[in-house]
Here is the input.
Amino acid sequence: MRRSEEDAPSADGPPDRRVARAERELMRGAGPAAVLALLARRGEMYGYELVAALSAGSDGALDMGQATLYPLLYNLEAKGLLKATWRETPAGRRRKYYALTAKGRRRLDAHRREWRAVTRALTRLGVLERVPARVPIAP
Amino acid sequence: MKPPPETAALPRRARERIAASLDAARLRRADREEVAAELVAHIDDGLECGRDLEDILRDFGEARETGALIGRSVRRRRRARFPALRAAKTFTLAIAVVYVGLFARLHARAPERQWKSPAAAAAAWRAAHESERAAFETVLASMYTEGEDGRLTAAGLRAFQAFQGKNAPSLWSIALEPAYFPNPARRGEARREFERFLRLAEDPGPAFETERDALLADGRRALRFVALQIPFERLAATRTAIRSRSHSHSNSRRTP
Here is the structure.
């Protein structure tokens, strides 16, 4: 999911249509569900903490850079799934913390149902091997 | 491309990268400052965790695309944060569309009878010596399109203004006409209302004056039946003449 400078398009400016497509892909993939799930488990997290947790928890499969994470967070906030609060760190720096809203919890439940159905279907089709019911995820 | 002040403590390369992304995001100042502060905090957190600056900046991706993505999502968030503002914009746009429609409705049609000028239409009516009904038909032809379902026209309103002595209405009054005449009576309705007033005028009692004053006092109804305001003057004069004749007649009968 990481967008690196190397694989960036060489065009002068990104046409709106391509940006809109990138945004749709961003909101359709596993990213939103993963962010909601992490916040449900941890209570509240800041941007860099989310990037690190997503990367570690998915063995790099959900590696996100700022280019992906912040638009994703702002979109989730616009939908009322997250709420953000600025707070000072013990070192005196300001950080923005994100937490789930009630609507976000309901959306996470919906995501879980959808992903469970997809996983079952892919397992039945033989795309996925049978895995233990609960896979431990790094905190 | 001026780096935002929030980035002052960062190395130059990081400042430039944030500035390039924010420029591409095209945000309002408050949003720009908030996003800048969050990106600065992100880089600081990365550096605090021992990551290399170049490594963190690589995650920024291509500045224009990153900026465009951030810009879209922040604008969406702003709209969600201020639903009243969004509703007001939609409402204003809807009003503007309706207004343009009303303006087009007034101006797209011509009255049944085309005069050389609105003043000529007004003068023709003043000089009319036909019956009241025939004279009012001239008024309707000067103001409305053809047929019972005929609509009030902008040229008709000019004729009405000329009748009132205003030969050069201001641009403002023309622009505001759709607001004053959002639902004018159709030609047939105006004729029926005139017939009612004609019957009242033929009655010796005070009903005509009472009804006329009530119509003129009710702003919306007065504008809806704007064409009626033209014959009122003539009908009132006729009534005065009839009354004075009947008065002098009864006096002469009473005199021995």
The two ends of chain B are 106 Å apart (CA to CA). The mean pLDDT of chain B is 86. The CA atoms of residues 204 and 242 of chain B lie 9 Å apart.
